[in-house]
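Tip: read the tokens left to right.
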């Protein structure tokens, strides 16, 4: 493997947490409390089912749980907190019983809340979540940076190009890795200006967020370039449409079934870890933990050599 792709060891530190990154891939399990997620819409809208699912993911080896209540799939109206299809009030009503119930059952669970709304971020961190996963990189709600700084929570900054309803009409993106690195560097600048501690930040390239199919693969191939930004990388490729499209092109549309898509997701996960990702965001935790264990052993052997 190219030494330039060597995953650095580091620390993700916020509140009372101090997570070592780079030695072992951290697995973030996804719980969608939505009726319209591209992956499992409606399955876990009921709080009890969502809590049960989160507990199962933890038992399967998830290091943290990412809970979201508004879909940001292509074509959705996410992006403007004042005009969003899912208001902050509805979002919080969906999230709160799941976060509270999960912490009652597993008080030591590490919870991330997937939101771009500052009001929701504040309410859910006060309820026990410790990380805010903002797909907009502090862009869609101008209060988010100051809110996260005040809360002292962990922050995931994702690169997003445009808003979901705009993605289908966006022009082709040239030099995708360089463009994403520039966008994430700007997000780090916004975080610094807001007073967010650098060690509290993880960066996400934003696979599928305003990138076309081949652009996502180009980004994955060049992901290690993002390591120069100095923060751990989180990769979320699980069940993404560009993986579905690659399967359909090779095997036909009828072959894009659940099992094949999970295999494709695991392959993407392996590539992302080899490209420097310290964390992965996944739907199928059991397969992700198994795949990550093998890649981690490979990277450890390379370091010894």
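Filled-in amino acids:
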């Amino acid at each position: 493997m190219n030494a330039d792709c060597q995953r650095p060891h580091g620390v993700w530190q916020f509140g009372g947490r101090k997570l070592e990154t780079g030695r072992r891939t951290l697995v973030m399990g996804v719980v969608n409390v939505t009726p319209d997620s591209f992956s499992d819409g409606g399955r876990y809208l009921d709080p009890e089912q969502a809590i049960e699912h989160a507990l199962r993911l933890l038992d399967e080896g998830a290091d943290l749980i990412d809970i979201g209540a508004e879909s940001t799939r292509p074509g959705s109206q996410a992006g403007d907190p004042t005009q969003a299809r899912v208001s902050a009030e509805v979002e919080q009503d969906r999230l709160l019983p799941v976060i509270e119930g999960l912490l009652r059952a597993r008080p030591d669970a590490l919870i991330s809340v997937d939101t771009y709304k500052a009001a929701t971020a504040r309410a859910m961190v006060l309820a026990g979540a410790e990380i805010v996963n903002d797909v907009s990189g502090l862009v869609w709600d101008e209060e988010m940076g100051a809110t996260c700084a005040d809360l002292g929570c962990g922050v995931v900054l994702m690169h997003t190009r445009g808003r979901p309803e705009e993605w289908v009409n966006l022009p082709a993106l040239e030099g995708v890795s360089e463009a994403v690195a520039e966008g994430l560097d700007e997000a780090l600048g916004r975080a610094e200006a807001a007073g967010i501690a650098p060690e509290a930040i993880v960066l996400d390239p934003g696979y599928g967020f305003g990138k076309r199919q081949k652009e996502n693969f180009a980004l994955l191939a060049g992901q290690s370039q993002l390591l120069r930004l100095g923060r751990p990388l989180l990769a979320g490729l699980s069940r993404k449409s560009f993986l579905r499209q690659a399967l359909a092109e090779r095997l036909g549309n009828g072959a894009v079934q659940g099992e094949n898509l999970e295999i494709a997701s695991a392959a993407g996960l392996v590539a992302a870890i080899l490209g420097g990702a310290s964390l992965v965001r996944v739907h199928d935790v059991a397969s992700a933990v198994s795949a990550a264990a093998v890649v981690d052993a490979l990277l450890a052997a390379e370091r010894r050599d």
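The longest strand covers residues 26-32. Strands lie at 10-14, 17-21, 26-32, 64-68, 111-114, 131-134, 154-158, 201-204, 233-235, 277-282.
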